[in-house]
Amino acid sequence: MVKKVIKFAKWIAGLLFVSSILSVVAYRFIPVYFTPLMFSRCFEQIVNGEKIKLYHHWISLEEMPPSMPVAVMASEDQRFLTHHGFDYKAIEQAAKSNLNGGKKLRGGSTISQQTAKNVFLWQGRSWLRKGLEAYFTFLIETFWSKQRIMEVYLNSIEMGDGIYGVQACAEKNFDVDARNLTRSDCALIAATLPNPRRFSSKAPGPYMRKRLRQIETQMKHIPAFPSDK
């Protein structure tokens, strides 16, 4: 009986391993139209008796303004183009700051890690989810280009209440197509990403204006995002 259970567990583990590889490879080529995060938010709205809010329009990286990837790198992950999914320097800095009781930092979560979490996993803070996040981060860094990671990230990241991706954000909050967003618009969107359900790019307050100026300053030191062509 024990041998059968072990054999079955190995079979399940193998199936999950193969399916994870196949899903990552598939998303290298096809758009990501729906994510676990979108499902979770929609489920919350249904449970709370609210109208479902889901605004999402996939566009290619070439259809986005060049300032958009630069803005999110300035805000979220300035070493995105040089690391392999994990920014160990940022993790070390965050750990030291937290241990010393200093200003709380973001924790060193990279754009690759955020993409892995948003596209393949549920929300939460368990060790199991963090372990799977590291696994999927390794996979997308292995099978996807940096351009593809950025493209999926900017199409799937939450940018407001029920708003996912830069095109939906441009339409809902700026009344323009994504390609027409200005450099300041891109910086303002990036400024909301620590908590897009709390901070709005449509009606930014004093704190958001301050964040906007900080990100615009950092953008001057970020190189132009390389084209995939």
Would you write up a description of this structure?
It is a single chain. By secondary structure, this protein is mainly alpha-helical. The protein has a single domain, classed as Penicillin binding protein transpeptidase fold, CATH 1.10.3810. It contains 10 helices and 3 strands. It has helices at 2-26, 36-47, 67-76, 88-99, 111-120, 127-143, 146-156, 166-174, 183-192, 206-219, and strands at residues 55-56, 158-160, 163-164. The protein has a 3-stranded mixed β-sheet with strand order 1-3-2. A hairpin with a 2-residue loop joins strand 2 (158-160) and strand 3. The longest helix has 25 residues, at 2-26. The relative contact order is 0.15.
Task: Output the keywords.
229 residues, mainly alpha, Penicillin binding protein transpeptidase fold, 3-stranded mixed beta sheet, Glyco_trans_51, Lysozyme-like_dom_sf
Architecture blueprint of SSEs:
Blueprint: H1 2-26, H2 36-47, E1 55-56, H3 67-76, H4 88-99, H5 111-120, H6 127-143, H7 146-156, E2 158-160, E3 163-164, H8 166-174, H9 183-192, H10 206-219
Parallel strand pairs: 1-3
Antiparallel strand pairs: 2-3
Helix pairs in contact: 1-6, 3-9, 3-10, 5-6, 5-7, 9-10
